[in-house]
Structures are given as structure tokens and as C-alpha cells.
Specification:
With 582 residues, this protein is an alpha/beta fold. The chain is built from 16 helices and 19 strands. Strands 1, 2, 3, 4, 5, 6, 7, 8, 9 and 10 form a ten-stranded mixed beta sheet that branches. Strand 6 and strand 7 form a beta hairpin. Helix 13 crosses helix 15. It is globular, with a radius of gyration of 27 Å.
Length: 582
């Protein structure tokens, strides 16, 4: 009898436990949208963040990165937060690894199996009207396998005023098991590496960034990056974070128009919306053509004529940066900026960039002849929402020297680009001006690789580029350029490519870890075939020259990788490897 009673009791307890579990599971509602929130010392920002997040997220998973204020208590006490991860408490931002934090959050989301993942920081807000439109979009129209981009506006003073020109940030995607963010410690797009760049789509949803809203916030943000990246390994210059906005750079925050479509389209500004709705400054020029005068004066006159012709369709400003005295005769449509003769071309680019008033900027030097008919198409693509726009750069294929120099500067296939989104950011393009300013301008310390480094940096941040599919410029070189110049340029570009790749592995090490180098140094281990399929009228001699160019670039990469330097062995191999590389 005792045994029977014991079995009945055990059976009853088991059934009761199973019944209770079934009740709990039936009451549990899987969160549809989870917001990932890495945070440190944000007690002042969290109340506002939660007030905003409740309108676009069903739950928040947070990681407290060693806070010394009330941040941990606020996270654990808020009903929207379903899980809190923690790093050990520390006194400052030294040791901050954004990639490790965000990947830990993404892994933690697997417990809840959400439909969508969005990343919004504590000092960011999605306005209520945008949040409502975003929720409708996720319920009815969003599809998996796509990374969705938001326009991120820097707020100034309060939430009613913002800088006119936003930057693009990609924050939203559909959840799948096993996803992983990039491993770069800082400054990357929190989008899984499995989503190809061609699947990055821009939306009209907006994010308000409060990090520069006051001088105190700007200084705190600058100090944060000074602590974690004192050698500027992940960003060329953080001093731009301290810049105070001027009145003419600001706009009043507009409410979202109910008729504004989710995606950017070529007719967006005529589809019930306004330029303010899509972040376009209707009163300023669409495009600034910055002419870097580093050659014959005829190149300057050609650029001015091309830009003026295009100005009949769009408001285009022309800025000449030259060491000569102006010969314009009082033309008020062109600004002439005189610099010293010893100012390099890359520095002249930055001078023109800072002087421009337009939302977008295109740089032209003495080797490029603009196609006037392409400028309206560039403007239209920018108005559509693309931050980086390019097209075909043609070259005289009967000129062996020009073909070689063209290949070195612009890479393979730049003369055969079709219309559409490009797989990589091109080395020469028309850029959203605010994007270049946010990146600190072109790297003047590396003039030979300035264009390449900018392209790689923007790729790392998740920006897409668009080709209009027609000729934008013709590449032209003068007879005085020596044959060895393209080879020297290729060598320097190889060194720049290697320096950028090493910067991505600075904190992780083990660059020569097989898979890492195959994915991050395509020019080193998985180089494309020497012959790209383009046959010039010169035939085999040009193919041989192309091979020399590739060899020179590879030599530059190898030279920079193996050049002795501090902690170089740890960076390359993950452990010391002898005196020569320590």
C-alpha cells in the first residue's frame, strides 16, 4: 500500500508540475521585436530611452558594460527589459569592445527567438510617429534577409532642432539562429555578416542622436573615444565630435508625413512628402563640384563649364582650390580658393569639403574630365537617398599608359559599371558631404591611399554605393607622367590596403589566421585572376602590364604586413614570433 500511495503521490506531483508549466507557456507571448542595448553609465538617458523604446520594441535585452552609476538598477527594474548581461565594473571606457558586447547580446536573443532585432543606443530615440510607421511596416511588409537603414540625425540643443544632413545607419534585420555581427572592436554596422551588402535597403525611418546635443555631451563622447582609441586606429580623427553647429546648419524637427513611403524612390519628393521629410535641404545646392587644381588650367575650365551646364537642371556650386590667382573675371557662380603651392591635393580636397554648402560633393582633379550630362543623374540619385553615387570612368583604350594608370587608381571594372547597387564602395564617387565630415575627411597622412582608405572606411560603416550606369568622367593623363608612376602608385595603394586591414585586427590579433586573412585581405590570399577579361587594342603587352600592377600592389601589401612594428607579431599570428616582428 505504501508503495502504491507513493506512486500516486509522485504521479500527482508530476502532473501538477506539467500542468503549471503548460499554463506558464500558454501565457508567454514571444516578443516580436527585441531591441539590443549595450550601455554604460547612461542613468540619465535611460528614462527617455525606455519612453521611446516602448513604441517600437516588445522587449529589450541589455548589456551593462561596467557602469559606475545607477544604470544596472534601472535596467533590472524596468518591465521592458527581459534580460541583463553584465561586464565587470571598471572606472573608465578603457577596454570597451563594442563588437564583443553586441555579439553577446545577439547570442542572448536566441533564448527568446524573436522575429526582428533592432539596435538602438541609450542616447538615441525613434520619434513616436516614426515608431508607429515602423511597427506597421514590420507587421505587414518587412521581409527577412534584408538589413534596413535609418537616417540618423544629430540633435542640437533639444529634440526640436537637428543638423540638416543625416548619416545612414543600418540597425534592423530578421532574427535567425547562429547570426553574428562583425568582429571589429569599434565603428561597424550592427548587421549580421551573413547579410550581403546588396541586401542593405534604405528606409525613411529616422533616429535622433542625442550625443552632440550639448557641449557637455560632445566633450564626454570625445573623451570616451580618446580613452578607448587613443591612437585613432579605428577612426582617423575624433576632434570633429567637438564641433559646435551653426544656425544655418540647423533645422526644426519635422513631423513625419503620413503619406511618406517606407522606402526611398526616385519620385519621393513629389509623392506627397517634402524635402524636409527625407532630410534634403531644399534651400541649398544639391551638389558641390570641388575642382582640385593640380595640373593644366584647361582642366579647371572644363570642370567649370561642365558644372554650369548641369546647373540648368539642379542647383550646383563650383569650388576651385588652386595655388593660382583667379582668372574668372568676377563669375559669382564659382568660388575660387587660393592656397599655397606646397598644399597637397588631398589637403585641397578637405579644404573644398569644408567650404562647400551643398548636401553632396564631387571631387575633380586634372586627370578627370566630367561628362556634363551625368551631373543631373548624380543629383537625382542623391535626392533618391543614396549617400555614395558613381558611374563609369572611361579611358582611351588605345593609350597603354592611360589604361595602366586608370587600373591603378580606380581598380578593375570601373569603366564597365552597370546601373544599380555596387558590391563595393568605389574609390572615386560623389559623396554625401555630412558622411565625409563625420569620417574626418580624407586622410592627409596617407595621400597616395586617401581615396582607397575612405572607400574601405565607409564600407566598414555599412554604407552602400550606387552607380548611375553611364559615363561620369573620362580619365586623362598628360604625356609628362612617367611610366614608373603607376607602379609606384600601386605599391603605395597596397601598403594602404594592408594598413587598413591591420587596423581591423588591432585588438583581435592573429591576422594570419587562415579564414580571417582570406576574408579580409582579398589581395593577399584570394586575389582575383590577373586577367579581368578586358582586352585592350594593345593585347598582350597591356595584360603583362596589368600583371605588373597587381604584383606591385601585392608587394606593397606584403611589405607593410612584414614591416617591423610594435606588437606586430601578436597582430599577425596571435603570439610572439621572433625579434624581427615584435
Amino acid at each position: 500500500m505504501r508503495q502504491v500511495r507513493f506512486r500516486r503521490k509522485t504521479c500527482s506531483a508530476t502532473l501538477q508540475k506539467a500542468f503549471s508549466q503548460a499554463i506558464l507557456e500558454s501565457a508567454y507571448v514571444k516578443p516580436k521585436v527585441i531591441c539590443l542595448l549595450p550601455v554604460r553609465n547612461a542613468a540619465a538617458d535611460l528614462p527617455g530611452f525606455f519612453s521611446s523604446a516602448v513604441h517600437f520594441a516588445d522587449a529589450v535585452i541589455s548589456l551593462d558594460d561596467g557602469s559606475t552609476d545607477e544604470t544596472p538598477q534601472l535596467l533590472r527594474s524596468h518591465p521592458l527589459v527581459i534580460k541583463v548581461l553584465s561586464n565587470p565594473r571598471r572606472s573608465d571606457f578603457t577596454g570597451w569592445d563594442d563588437a564583443a558586447n553586441r555579439n553577446a547580446l545577439l547570442a542572448a536573443a536566441s533564448e527568446f527567438q524573436p522575429d526582428w532585432i533592432i539596435s538602438v543606443d541609450a542616447d538615441e530615440r525613434i520619434p513616436d510617429d516614426d515608431a508607429l510607421a515602423l511597427k506597421r511596416f514590420l507587421e505587414h511588409d518587412a521581409i527577412p534577409g534584408v538589413a534596413y537603414g535609418f537616417r540618423c540625425y544629430s540633435m542640437a540643443g533639444d529634440l526640436s532642432h537637428a543638423l540638416r544632413n543625416p548619416i545612414w545607419v543600418y540597425r534592423l534585420f530578421a532574427y535567425l539562429p547562429g547570426l553574428r555581427f562583425p568582429d571589429q572592436a569599434l565603428h561597424f554596422a550592427p548587421i549580421p555578416t551573413s547579410i550581403p551588402r546588396r541586401a542593405f535597403l534604405r528606409t525613411t525611418f529616422r533616429i535622433q542622436h542625442l550625443g552632440g546635443m550639448s557641449s557637455e555631451r560632445r566633450l564626454a563622447r570625445y573623451e570616451k573615444y580618446r580613452q578607448v582609441d587613443p591612437e585613432c586606429r579605428f577612426w582617423p580623427d575624433y576632434s570633429s565630435l567637438l564641433a559646435e553647429s551653426t544656425v544655418d546648419q540647423l533645422m526644426e524637427w519635422p513631423a513625419r508625413n503620413r503619406e511618406t513611403p517606407v522606402f526611398f524612390a526616385s519620385d519621393l519628393h513629389s509623392d506627397g512628402g517634402t524635402f524636409a521629410d527625407v532630410g534634403i535641404d531644399e534651400t541649398g545646392p544639391v551638389l558641390a563640384v570641388v575642382v582640385v587644381d593640380d595640373g593644366p588650367i584647361e582642366a579647371v575650365h572644363h570642370a567649370i563649364s561642365s558644372a554650369k551646364t548641369a546647373g540648368t537642371h539642379h542647383d550646383v556650386e563650383v569650388i576651385i582650390v588652386s595655388s593660382r590667382e583667379s582668372d574668372l573675371g568676377g563669375d559669382d557662380r564659382v568660388r575660387w580658393m587660393t592656397v599655397d603651392k606646397d598644399v597637397r591635393s588631398v589637403a585641397r580636397r578637405n579644404i573644398g569639403l569644408n567650404a562647400a554648402r551643398a548636401a553632396n560633393v564631387l571631387f575633380v582633379d586634372s586627370t578627370l574630365r566630367l561628362e556634363p550630362s551625368s551631373i543631373p543623374a548624380l543629383c537625382e540619385a542623391h535626392l533618391t537617398g543614396y549617400a555614395i553615387v558613381s558611374g563609369r570612368i572611361e579611358c582611351d583604350r588605345s593609350n597603354q599608359l592611360a589604361l595602366t594608370a586608370h587600373r591603378v587608381r580606380f581598380g578593375k571594372g570601373s569603366g564597365e559599371t552597370g546601373a544599380g547597387i555596387l558590391a563595393r564602395v568605389p574609390r572615386w564617387a560623389s559623396y554625401r558631404r555630412s558622411l565625409l565630415l563625420e569620417a574626418g575627411g580624407f586622410d592627409e597622412a596617407d595621400p597616395a591611399g586617401a581615396e582607397l582608405l575612405m572607400a574601405r572606411r565607409l564600407e566598414t560603416l555599412g554604407y552602400l554605393s550606387y552607380s548611375i550606369g553611364e559615363p561620369v568622367a573620362r580619365f586623362h593623363i598628360d604625356d609628362h607622367i612617367k611610366t614608373r608612376s603607376p607602379l609606384h602608385k600601386a605599391f603605395q595603394l597596397g601598403r594602404a590596403e594592408a594598413r587598413f586591414t591591420m587596423s581591423q585586427f588591432r585588438d583581435r590579433g592573429a591576422l594570419f589566421g587562415g579564414e580571417a586573412i582570406r576574408s579580409s585581405l582579398p589581395g593577399f590570399m584570394s586575389r582575383e585572376k590577373q586577367n579581368d577579361g578586358t582586352r585592350s587594342p594593345l593585347g598582350r603587352p597591356q595584360e603583362a602590364r596589368n600583371g605588373l600592377i597587381d604584383l606591385a600592389k601585392l608587394t606593397g601589401e606584403t611589405t607593410e604586413l612584414l614591416r617591423p612594428g610594435r606588437n606586430k607579431a601578436l597582430l599577425l599570428f596571435g603570439h610572439p614570433a621572433g625579434i624581427a616582428l615584435v
